[in-house]
Amino acid sequence: MKYQYRARDPLGKVREGEIDADTIEVAAQRLRQDGLAILHLDEDTDGSLFPRRVSKSDIIYLTSQLAVMVDTGITLSTALAGISEQEENPTLKKILIDLQRSVESGDDFSSALGRYPALFDKTFISLVKASEATGTLGEMLERIAAYLRKELETRGKVRAALAYPTVMLVLAIAVTVFLLTFVLPKFTPLFSRQGMQLPKPTIVMMALSHYLIDFWYLWIVGLVGGTIGFVYGKKTEPGRKIWDWIKISTPIVGPMFRKVTISRSVRTLGTMIASGVPMLEAIQLSAAVAGNYYFERLWMDVQIHVMAGNQICEALARNRLFPRMLVQMISSGEETGKLDMVLVKVSNYFDQEVETSLKTVTSMIEPIMITVMGVIVGGIGLGMLLPIFSLSKTPT
């Protein structure tokens, strides 16, 4: 039997881990023998090989529930206990119980959340930490829920817009492989028996068909190797720089990705400033959530200029990634002292721009993909029909 534990050592440092024991009494005795004061000791009931995933929607719903309960005067530990009792996801239930016990033991809620960075990012934790200093946790949780809901909505729209061209691309590749490996080889014996001179398009198609059939294992190795190289390459700085540059520079989809990145980072900055987070920390978090190497570098450059006593608009004006209109709006916000309000309005404006860009991208990509697919399939069909036309013209 395994038990999860949290305990405090003689120096006051909190330790976490698991211990093997037949009974809970034996487990507690072993911890005390090591000089640890037990804060939490519980049986590890999550014995599944693949723990149930906690989605972004689960976190949004949890945050909204906590906001309502805390606003009505319920203590945080009681709210966590009530939600955990009704939670059906065993993974999230276990996390809620741990958060409850951490709060009851005297830990800050932000510190307890920090133990789960995969679920609660730096923005979430920083906002909660700011609310703890001002005593506005309920209001802040509602603001966080709205922020996360907007982010999830934008991300869903982008994925939906890119789903169609992705399906069309996969379909075009599948049809091409099918024609070259199953259909064209049936015509090859006919062309060989006639001993005729084949047109160049047909020769190219037959050569490609030959390489696909006879060296299929090399294609599979290349596909798997390319996929692995792409996935791991994006995690390196050079690979990430190249991929992020492609995303924001590619025609049609590039402007959409730029607007999504601007909307995300500006909304984060506005939410942070309105919530009382220090300016430098807010800018740093805006860089972290940008999701693009070049925008991250831009925000870090802004942070350096702000530390030197300059305004945000002055640093943004030196970079072409931000539209001039946006720089002017931020400048007016800094002059009037309503920067947080301006940033929120700017993010809402860019959300609308993202929706417009998504519609434009979808309307433009659809005919392009249909044309590309038609050219590929038509080219292969023409390569097969040209020799047949030549045979029909040959005198018998």
CATH architectural designation of the domain at 164-396: Up-down Bundle
Structural classification? mainly alpha
- Average of the residue pLDDT scores: 81
Quickly count the helices. Answer: 16
* Topology as a string of helices (H) and strands (E): EEHEHHHHHHHHHHHHHHH
Distance between the termini: 87 Å
- The CATH topology of the domain at 164-396 is given as Receptor-associated Protein
What is the percentage of strand-forming residues?
5-15%
Query: For this structure, what is the CATH homologous superfamily of the domain at 164-396?
Result: Type II secretion system (T2SS), domain F
The neighbouring-strand order within the major sheet is: 2-1-3
Low-confidence parts: none
Morphology: extended
Tell me the Rg in angstroms: 30 Å
Helix content: over 70%
Q: Which CATH first-tier class of the domain at 164-396 would you pick?
A: Mainly Alpha
The biggest beta sheet is recorded as: 3 strands, antiparallel
User: How many strand elements?
Assistant: 3
What is this entry, summarized?
With 396 residues, the chain is mainly alpha-helical. Among the domains are: 1-44; 164-396, Up-down Bundle (Receptor-associated Protein). The protein has helices at residues 24-33, 56-71, 76-86, 90-104, 109-113, 122-134, 137-194, 200-214, 216-233, 237-249, 254-274, 279-289, 293-307, 312-316, 324-336, 339-393; strands at 2-8, 14-20, 37-43.
